[in-house]
Amino acid sequence: MSSSNASTKVAEFTAPGVDSQSAKDTIALLDDRLVALLDLQLTLKHVHWNVVGPNFIGVHEMLDPQVDAVREMTDTIAERIATMGGVPVGTPQSIVDRRRWDEYNIGRGLVVDHLGALDKVYNGVNEDHRKAIDKLAELDPVSEDLLTGQLGDLEQFQWFVRAHIESATGELNR
Which ranges of the sequence are coiled-coil (predicted)? Predict the structure, then answer.
C-alpha cells in the first residue's frame, strides 16, 4: 500500500458521532498538519545545528524547546488521526512525498539568515494551521480545538523568532 493510500485509509470505526465522510476529511486535514509539523521539527533542529554568528547561543538554546513542543504536537495529531480511524504515517519518504512546500535551503548560516527563513517557514505552517482550523469547525470540533491550541504555541514561537530579526521600528529584517 502506498503512503498516500495508507494516510487516508479509514478504519471501520471513527469517533462516536462523527460520520465516515467527516472522519475521512478530518484525517486528510490532520495528515497535512502532521507532515507540516514533522517537517518543522526537523527544520528547527537543522537550524539549531547550523546557526552561527552573533546571538548564536541565544538562538541555539531557544530552538530546542520549540523542537520538543512541535514533536509533542506531532504525537497528538498522529493519535487523533488514529482515534478518527486513520493511519498516521510518519516515515521519512512518506513525509517527503506528501510535502507541498520547498525544502529549507540554508546550511550553515548566520542567525539573521536562518531566522528570516524560519520566519517564512512559520508563516506557512501557521497560515495552513489556521485554514485547517476553519475547515475543522464544521467537521470535528475536537480536532479544531487541538489545532487551535497548537496554533497559539506556534504563533508564540514565531514571535520569539521575529524578536531576533525585528528592528526598533517594528520592521522585520530578513
Answer: none
Tell me the per-residue pLDDT of 79-123, one tens digit each, with 9 for 90 and over. Answer: 999 999 999 999 999 999 999 988 999 999 999 999 999 999 999
Q: Check if the beta carbon of residue 39 is closer than 8 Å to that of residue 89.
A: no
What is the DSSP secondary structure assignment for residue 72, as one 8-state letter?
Answer: H
- Taking alpha carbons only, the member of 13, 55, 6 closest to residue 31 is 6
Report yes or no: 151 and 129 within 8 Å, Cβ to Cβ: yes
φ, ψ for residue 22, nearest 5 deg? -60, -40
Q: Which residues contact 63 (CB under 8 A, 6 or more apart)?
A: 44, 45, 47, 48, 51
* Axis crossing angle, helix 20-50 with helix 56-83, rounded to the nearest 10: 160
Contact 48, 114 (CB under 8 A): no
Give dist(CA 133, CA 139) in Å, integer: 10
Nearest partner of 136 among 38, 31, 25, judged by Cα: 25
**Structural domains in the chain?**
3-10+18-165 (1.20.1260.10)
Answer yes or no: pTM beyond 0.85.
yes
